[in-house]
Amino acid sequence: MAQRYVRVKTNQGQTYYGLLQLTSRIQVLDAPPWLQGQPTDIELEAGSYQLLAPCSPSKIVAVGKNYVDHAAEMGTPVPKEPLLFMKPPTAITAANREIHYPPQSQRVDYEGELALVIGAPCVDCTPAEAQGKIWGYTIANDVTARDLQKQDGQWTRAKGFNSFCPLGPWIVRELSAGARIQTFLNDAPQPVQSALTNQMVFSPEFLVSYISQVMTLLPGDVILTGTPEGVGPVQIGDRVRVEIEGIGHLENTVVARSLPESP
Ligand code: MG
Which GO terms describe its biological process (predicted)? Predict the structure, then answer.
């Protein structure tokens, strides 16, 4: 199995980057691995930590309509250039944590996606240079309030709710070009989304290059590469599982979120 890079919080409240071993013990690193973190002599026993999202990005840059069949199901052509939007880092939630269904929406969709983790500052990179800036790969769910996306015209609210970016559970360094990505709902054996990552319109290195001509990407930043065909709604109580061959799976449960009492 590929080396699995994680970020954890111990039962005592310390946050560490580390390597997840087959025994479920964590070998703690002294810094994020993309900043040359080295193994320490600290090991965490199973049960003494919880997994966090595997990085803590300054920003999440996402790409819309990057699979031909998904653009078609949205009734739109494939964009001539990548269509960029952002999700706030506060939208991130870890594997096995809850997605909070906001009361402002009546239609919340899952969007299983391959996520890229940037390893080094990246500005005005060519695609060839950009390939070297992609440190690793993880799984994301670009949860979207579809009704608010259509209503607002721009996507910040629809994409930006707390918990609308499940990410993880870990990062791997390598991914085969044609890795299968699938999304499952609850116990249904058939996926609701199934595609190969090389069916993307714009490749990971092209996306990183393109984004780097707009904004500087920093170590630990995350790029969401778009979702395949088959997006659909979740209901409160649903479990959503996104699987990518060679990485693993990311599962989250949908719960109701109530608005805070007004002061
Ligand atoms: Mg998306």
Answer: carboxylic acid metabolic process
